[in-house]
Design a protein that fits this description.
The chain is α/β, with parallel strands linked by helices. Helices cover about 30% and strands about 25% of the residues. It has 2 domains: about 210 residues, Alpha-beta prism (UDP-n-acetylglucosamine1-carboxyvinyl-transferase, Chain); about 200 residues, Enolpyruvate transferase domain (UDP-n-acetylglucosamine1-carboxyvinyl-transferase, Chain). The structure holds shikimate-3-phosphate and phosphoenolpyruvate. The site of phosphoenolpyruvate has 8 residues, from helix 3. This is 3-phosphoshikimate 1-carboxyvinyltransferase.
């Protein structure tokens, strides 16, 4: 797909999808509560897939989580405790994304789960649930927090169903913590008795209450509009609706991060307004930590390289096991423009550039929606091709329509 910008400042209003993280939790909690409504569900593929698989589960013995991490991990726990028997499968990439920590924890809680191919990876065979006889004591589990927080969210959500409840002790350097906090907050909203104290998470046994919940717009999706405003000609501004100052989403961290790239955020009653500011003087190399917000890393790496404002990026450990190896993908694609993402010390990657130029390069997207959306804003600096553009459907199916509405010239045939 060929993308170009006709010139002049960017302005207008853009529609965002609803958060797939909030939606996929709310759908699991709704299923466990046996009622309630989830409002503002987006058409994001991961959200629709979760909805469909939850509805299909009772009558089928093969469920395909495709490439959706939350669907694979949350359903593993949900199907285990609801005594489902069958196979839970996924794409070739999903079969390379580890799930051993979650499976081991669920086995200790009483689930029968087998690996169908490789030990520690999907696909899985689920063979029911036998709760421990000791109904008084909570199931106590030590779980690594340094691979994926989705295992912890998955376990927490089924915690009320376990006889005696659940006590999780997180070990290692916990990543993506705001996603765990989001899970706890939504569980409480759905009537669960649970608490989080640093590395100890406690869930008391009980029932969820049918609850009506309206999903907030997606802050990770908003991050691409921040890039657009940062890279657009002077005077650019955009309004995004459905985002709240009080958010459950850790990716709201983009508000602060983008101040370093000249984007100012104003909160309004129904969303936010982004405005480009003249760049403020800054330290030679900025350091930003993505431990809590890994999905923002691609957005920021591309903007930092394009503006040649070097950033030392830390907390990127989980990027190698997402939709693709995002570090390798960023390195390969940034290099096409004169950008660079180099490990300058253990775990610290510097995003920078020499003579960054956009002139009809073709960006490979590696089956990763965020590669497509993080690189698309470069079209403001020159014409650009994005390969396999439909990949955005995972979280933001309307992304290209929204770019077209804001003035980009898009030729899908190219
Ligand atoms: O719980 C969630 O909704 C998510 C948690 C994060 O994954 P990790 O916990 O694997 O970092 C994030 O990258 C993913 O897009 C969504
Ligand atoms: C990592 C992501 O998703 P998931 O892990 O749910 O596949 C993402 O959306 O960036």
């Amino acid at each position: 797909m060929h993308l170009s910008w006709p010139g002049g400042p960017l302005h207008g209003t853009a529609q965002l999808p609803a958060s797939k993280s909030e939606a996929n939790r709310a759908l699991i909690l709704q299923a466990l509560a046996g009622g309630g409504t989830v409002g503002n569900l987006s058409d994001a593929h991961d959200t629709q897939l979760m909805r469909r698989l939850l509805a299909a589960a009772p009558g089928t013995d093969v469920l395909d989580a495709e490439d959706a991490g939350t669907v694979m991990r949350f359903l593993t726990a949900y199907l285990a405790v609801t005594n489902w028997h069958g196979r839970l499968v996924g794409t070739a990439r999903m079969q390379q994304r580890p799930i051993g920590v979650l499976v081991e924890a669920l086995r200790q809680a009483g689930a029968g789960i087998k690996y169908l191919n490789n030990e520690g990876y999907p696909p899985l065979e689920l063979a029911g649930f036998t709760a421990s006889k000791e109904t008084e004591a909570p199931t106590e589990l030590a779980v690594r927090g340094d691979i994926s927080s989705q295992y912890i969210s998955a376990l927490l959500m089924v915690g009320p169903r376990l006889p005696g409840g659940l006590r999780l002790r997180l070990t290692g350097h916990v990543g993506s913590r705001p996603y765990i906090n989001m899970t706890v907050a939504l569980m409480q909203l759905f009537g669960a008795d649970c608490s989080a104290e640093d590395a100890t998470l406690t869930v008391r046994p009980g029932h969820y209450q049918p609850t009506d919940y309206t999903v907030e717009s997606d802050w990770s999706a908003a991050s691409y509009w921040y890039s657009l405003v940062a890279l657009a000609p002077a005077g650019s501004e955009i309004t995004l609706s459905g985002l709240r100052r009080e958010s459950l989403q850790g990716d709201q961290a983009i508000v602060e991060m983008m101040t370093h790239f000249g984007v100012e955020t104003t909160f309004r009653p129904d969303g936010i307004h982004l405005k480009q500011q003249p760049p403020a003087p800054q330290a030679e190399v900025l350091t930003l930590d993505f431990t809590d917000c890994p999905d923002l890393a691609q957005t920021v790496a591309v903007v930092a390289a394009a503006l040649n404002r070097p950033v030392d990026m830390t907390g990127l450990e989980s990027l190698r096991i997402k939709e693709t190896d995002r570090i390798a993908a960023l390195q390969a694609e940034l290099a096409k423009f004169g950008g660079d993402l180099r490990e300058v010390s253990a775990g610290c990657f510097r995003a920078e550039s020499v003579g960054f130029a956009v002139n009809n390069q073709s960006v490979a997207t590696y089956h990763d929606h965020r590669m497509a959306m993080a690189f698309a804003p470069l079209a403001l600096r020159g014409p650009l091709n994005i390969e396999s553009p439909t990949v955005v459907k995972k979280s933001y199916p309307q992304f290209w329509n929204e770019l077209a509405k804001s003035g980009f010239v898009i030729n899908e045939a190219d």
